[in-house]
Amino acid sequence: MDNINNKRIRYYSVWLSLVCVLVFIIQNIIPGFTETFYLTQDALTRPWQFLTAIFLHGSVAHLLYNIFALILFGIMLETIIWSKKFLGLFLISGILANIASFHFYSASLGASGAIMAILGCLAVLRPLMTVWAFNLPMPMFIAALLWVGGSVLGIFGFGDQSTGHLAHLSGIVLGVCYGFYLRFRYRNKNQAGFTQKIVLDENSMRKWEEGYLR
After folding, report:
1. What is the per-residue pLDDT across 7-64, written as a single tens digit (0 to 9) for each?
2. Residue 41 Cα to chain centre, angstroms
3. What is the CATH number of domain 4-212?
4. Fewer beta carbons under 10 A from the terminal one: N or C of the chain?
5. CB neighbours of 89 closer than 8 A, spacing ≥ 6?
6. 3-class DSSP assignment, residue 25
């Protein structure tokens, strides 16, 4: 039986967002800080960049957009897969998205790859959940398909080329793969967030009847 403390929601999405805010403040105080820790094509000789670049942002708008998505969708996913799995998904997908894309950009930074993994995982676990995307309400899986389409078009030169489309695409693919892994792994198990059921045994029902129905 799982320890109930391991099932407590720890709101890692909020803590991760606060880390991003703190790092952004440091970026604007310490000269050269951003250049030391953002992702470059020299990352193989500076491997920390695959992790540290996740928490850096290029502008206030970039930061606010990312932490809004991280908190909103992150809390949704964290309540489904629990905090440890959520934190693992965020960090691992962010690193892998950076590994997949670092060679294609002279420099990059931001949590977008990890956030796209959250969206991809949600699209598999809650495909019919209604979200507001592209100024329209739509099912989560439709929004994910549109995000994938936008990233693919961006890779081929359409749209804003200042965006790390390859990192975005890598992140959402990783999230989708992890979502399917969780669905298949827990399809026959009574795990909270997947097939949670409330089970009342006969003795419990009798005690309830005796206490409240007499």
Report:
1. 678 899 999 999 999 999 999 999 999 999 999 999 999 999 999 999 999 999 999 9
2. 24
3. 1.20.1540.10
4. N
5. 77, 81, 114, 117, 118, 121, 175, 178
6. helix
